[in-house]
Amino acid sequence: MPEQHPHLPELFGSSIYWLETSEAQRRPSASGGQRFDVVIVGGGFTGLWTAYHLTQADPSMSVAVVERETIGFGASGRNGGFAMTLLDLSLHQLRENNGDVAAREAHEAVAASVDEIGETIRREQIDCEWVRGGLMVVATNQAQRARIDQDMEAAEELGLSGFKRLSAEEVQAEVHSPTYVGGLREEHCGVMHPAKLARGLASVVEARGVTVFEATAVDDIEVLTDRVALRTRDGAVLEADQAVLATNAWAHADPRIGRKVLPLYTYIALTEPLDDRQWDEVGWASHCGIEDKRNFVHYYRRTLDGRILWGGSDGIVFPGRRIAAGHDRNNGVFHRLLGTFRDTFPQLADVRFTHHWGGPVGLTTRFVPVFGSVNSRLHYGAAYSGHGVAPSHTGGKILRDKVLGVAGDLNGLCFVDSREPSFPPEPIASIAAELSRRALRKQDDLAQQGKTDYLSEPLAMKVLRALE
Ligand SMILES: Cc1cc2nc3c(=O)[nH]c(=O)nc-3n(C[C@H](O)[C@H](O)[C@H](O)COP(=O)(O)OP(=O)(O)OC[C@H]3O[C@@H](n4cnc5c(N)ncnc54)[C@H](O)[C@@H]3O)c2cc1C
Prior knowledge:
Elements: H1 17-20, E1 34-41, H2 45-57, E2 63-66, E3 82-84, H3 91-98, H4 100-123, E4 135-139, H5 142-158, E5 163-166, H6 168-174, E6 182-186, E7 189-191, H7 194-207, E8 211-213, E9 218-223, E10 228-232, E11 237-245, E12 262-271, H8 276-282, E13 289-292, E14 298-302, E15 308-312, H9 331-344, E16 353-363, E17 370-375, E18 378-382, H10 391-404, H11 428-448, H12 459-467
Parallel strand pairs: 1-2, 1-11, 2-8, 4-13, 11-18
Antiparallel strand pairs: 3-7, 4-6, 5-6, 9-10, 10-11, 12-15, 12-16, 13-14, 14-15, 17-18
Helix pairs in contact: 2-7, 2-10, 3-4, 3-5, 11-12
């Protein structure tokens, strides 16, 4: 019988399941004295897709990826594994905030990335448990159903393909939860083992000649007239014609773009494998990813070894915007997740949880990522507000075009070279984020009790916006 974790009494496993169940290669750290055409800082999906697209476009280019821990250590190796189209808080919001043309272009670019991720996994033979089962968005109360109506209306008016409204009966026929009151299905979504994808991609780019350094933290990037000098924590210096900053939540510490990015922790709980009888009681034959429409969404999916991954429900910005190993688990969020899981699947009351973990995502004030160039030698792409698995593939192409100096179509997307507002300085930002969190969670709970809708923005959110 495995030991119980002292602080998480219902948990008997450990650590980050995806990292535990994918093979890590130990790569050397950078010792300095090397020059590359391009150095990419950050070994997550953004950095790896940038290396992939760059070497596809120009195989002669010398490229290095520099990662402070191991490949996939950040959000890319610990996420829910949904490659989905979401940008902004919803399709409706994307349209409201950017207009029809920009919303359609952005959505279609990321939808194309969902297709291309699947094709790349097949072509490059990356063994990462990819299942193209679509996305089912579910409403568990009438306020959430109104949000689904808004998204369906946006999809119809933008003329987007692949969306279908679902009745309560249709949703419940697919996945058996008494909580569902309606939903929609979006075809453009697949799920995978994210750490296997990240580590598989690293091997693919290495086979193309990309140098991958691990255990190498870049502490300073200096742009000089004829090159970029990247200094590591160990005192090594790498040189490059151009550099790409792909450090996502960690970008908050960068003096150039840091104020645009707030690190927010989101958490996951993972069940033990269900047996056949339990799966009969749940259904879910399509392996679709599922999200609800709360402010703090729940995202959940099956794994290929028969578990349910249950994530979301909350999101925390820690004081001082701190990212630390001590935040990788959170007792309060874990218990909140257990409660909502048991409400959703009362037939699984006996199922135990084996793993719980979290990680930092980069949040922006407009909930779309930030892509741009500090100057002709330094480019950046980060902060997908918790939904970067597919957009980072699009982002890799945007960064490729920036490095190559090509004015491709993607560089006209609404989150590229835009004037993304900054968050206020500390401690104001993390205090405002905590107040917003409480207000948004309360609104979620009241909506579930039928006591409010989502039409009015909580006061704390208004304050946060006013501080921008
Ligand atoms: C729990 C969780 C669940 C999620 N679920 C989903 C989901 O289902 N679908 C979805 O679309 N998105 C999801 N996301 C978000 C998604 O994982 C991210 O948007 C995406 O992985 C971002 O990729 P990235 O490469 O930009 O960042 P990361 O994967 O965070 O990579 C950044 C890397 O930079 C490295 N780094 C930082 N500083 C330095 C430095 N100074 N020098 C060198 N290296 C450095 C870090 O170690 C890290 O590996 C989730 C995130 C979390 C945490």
